[in-house]
Amino acid sequence: MDFYQVAVESHGAATTIYVSGFLAQLAAARVEEIVAATPENVRVLRIDLRGVELIDPSAFVIVARTLGRWRDATRGRVCLQFPERSARRHTPPVALYGDQRSTMGSAVSRAMSWPMSTSPG
């Protein structure tokens, strides 16, 4: 069972297709239908995928090919907006708080500075 929602907003020479939920075969087929029914005066076709939770790669290929065919046929412009979650997240470096640096540094330096004797003496 696929859970998705596809909505469309069109005005002037621009159309936006909003997809949310799962981008699977049924959602991709719905996008195809909407693109095929797009009025001839539309010059910009925007696909907003920010509400998508999961993307099926084969469904995304269907959407990408549909957009490419529309762009080639109309000489229009295509804009894709991807979900934030798919962006690479920056993880901050580990931060030490309080007196942890001096404690850790001294413990390491003491361990490294112990003399090593190989002969009994």
Strand order of the largest sheet: 1-2-3-4
CATH secondary-structure class of the domain at 9-85: Alpha Beta
**In percent, how much strand structure appears in the residues?**
25-35%
- Helical content stands at 25-40%
Mean pLDDT: 81
Structural class: alpha/beta
Largest sheet: 4 strands, mixed
How far apart the termini lie comes to 79 Å
Instruction: Using the alpha-carbon principal axes, give the shape.
Output: elongated
Subunit organisation of the chains: single chain
Would you report the number of β strands? 4
| CATH second-level architecture of the domain at 9-85 | 2-Layer Sandwich
Query: CATH superfamily of the domain at 9-85, called what?
Result: STAS domain
Report on the architecture of this protein.
The chain has 121 residues and is α/β, with parallel strands linked by helices. The chain has a domain at 9-85: 2-Layer Sandwich (Transcription Regulator spoIIAA). The protein has helices spanning 25-36, 57-74, 100-113, and strands spanning 4-11, 14-23, 44-55, 77-81. α1 packs parallel to α2. The longest helix is centred in the middle third of the chain and has 18 residues, at 57-74. The radius of gyration is 28 Å and the shape is elongated. 13% of the residues are buried.
